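PROTEIN DESIGN WORKSHEET
SECTION A - STRUCTURE
LENGTH: 384
TOKENS:
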């Protein structure tokens, strides 16, 4: 086993509760998840010398936990931030800037405790270029791309509805999932229209919760008496494009997903056929469709039929979003941390809806309306 230069996720855990947690602020959710992740690997805050977070400053997370950091990362590019934190921690640990990095997430997305009211900053591209024309935020802007995709590639409403239907099948096997009752295509159509062709059941949940990761070098991981096996970061990539939908290179694909995915696969040295499990950010039902195509798992225009035919469902050949995703599991606002958590569980073999034989899991995060993306290739010891 060649451990030189490799980095491992040795701790991974979510907040004690998910859903509606009015008794905890966003910062407290960061800390709750952080303590759970440290307990997961048998470490304490005193063992940490690097802190990364989005939403709350890593300075405040470190101060709350009594950590004296040598490395800080406050990258905040939306829901993909945590994939970027992992990539940056890989570089920092490999360069000897720090030894053990704690990555934290926490949002009171539903209860809004300790959260600033959302509004686009007046100087932002969104406030200048989109708000004056009427649409505000993802529920009204994202559907324009869905309509364009349907026109270009012939995706049917029934195929789009199969995304939440399939992910609910996974959620039904997960006791922590907020929504677990089975749904049908007809149920999706019966839910309220948000912005045609998007219905309520095409949209993510709004919840409270958090998650955290602990990373260190693979060599150090081997020297620790860990309660759970390390999960190795085999490859990572990131990219971005316009922060406004009107500025995107395409309304039917994501350049950021494509470039970040290419970088992650190149670093890992693996091929798509090596991937056993997939997590693709799903704030809205069409995002996994774009992700499957932009990551290169299927050809352009093929993802809707690929999902509708059961390939990503329980028993399918490419299990995807096995925790139920942002559509049924949880979605605090910046969902990327929860995608990583499920990938780690699947590689460890501890997921509620465990897939047999997962040695390689790929997870992709998205920030904003495709303005940023990060992809991680995670593997078991057998992949080194």
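SECTION B - SEQUENCE
RESIDUE ASSIGNMENT:
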């Amino acid at each position: 086993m060649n451990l030189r230069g490799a980095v491992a996720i040795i701790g991974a855990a979510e907040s004690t509760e998910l859903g509606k947690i009015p008794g905890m602020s966003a910062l407290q959710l960061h800390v709750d998840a952080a303590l759970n992740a440290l307990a997961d690997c048998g470490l304490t805050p005193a063992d940490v010398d690097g802190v990364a977070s989005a939403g709350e400053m890593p300075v405040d997370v470190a101060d709350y936990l009594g950590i004296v950091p040598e490395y800080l990362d406050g990258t905040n590019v939306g829901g993909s931030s945590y994939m970027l934190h992992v990539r940056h921690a890989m570089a920092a640990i490999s360069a000897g800037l720090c030894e053990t990095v704690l990555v934290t997430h926490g949002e009171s997305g539903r209860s809004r405790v300790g959260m600033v009211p959302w509004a686009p900053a007046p100087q932002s591209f969104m406030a200048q270029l989109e708000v004056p024309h009427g649409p505000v935020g993802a529920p009204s802007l994202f559907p324009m791309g869905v309509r364009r995709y349907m026109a270009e590639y012939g995706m049917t409403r029934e195929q789009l509805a199969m995304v939440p239907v399939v992910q609910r099948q996974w959620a039904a096997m997960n006791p922590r999932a907020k929504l677990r009752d089975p749904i049908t295509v007809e149920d999706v159509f019966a839910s309220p229209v948000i912005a045609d062709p998007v219905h309520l059941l095409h949209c993510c949940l709004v919840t409270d919760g958090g998650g955290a990761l602990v990373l260190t070098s693979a060599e150090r991981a081997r020297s620790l008496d860990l309660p759970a096996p390390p999960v190795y970061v085999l490859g990572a990539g990131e990219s971005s494009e316009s922060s406004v939908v009107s500025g995107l290179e395409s309304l039917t694909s994501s350049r950021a997903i494509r470039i970040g995915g290419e970088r992650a696969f190149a670093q890992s040295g693996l091929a798509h056929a090596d991937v056993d499990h997939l997590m693709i950010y799903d704030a809205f039902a069409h995002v996994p469709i774009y992700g499957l195509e932009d990551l290169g798992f299927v050809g352009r225009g093929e993802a809707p039929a690929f999902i509708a035919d059961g390939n990503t469902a329980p028993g399918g050949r490419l299990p995807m979003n096995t925790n139920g995703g942002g559509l049924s599991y949880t979605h605090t606002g910046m969902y990327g941390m929860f995608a990583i958590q499920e990938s780690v569980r699947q590689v460890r073999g501890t997921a509620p809806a465990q897939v047999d034989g997962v040695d390689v899991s790929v997870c992709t995060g998205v920030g904003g309306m495709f303005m940023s993306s990060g992809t991680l290739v995670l593997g078991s010891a057998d992949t080194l």
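SECTION C - NOTES
The mean pLDDT is 96.
DSSP finds 13 helices and eleven strands in the chain.
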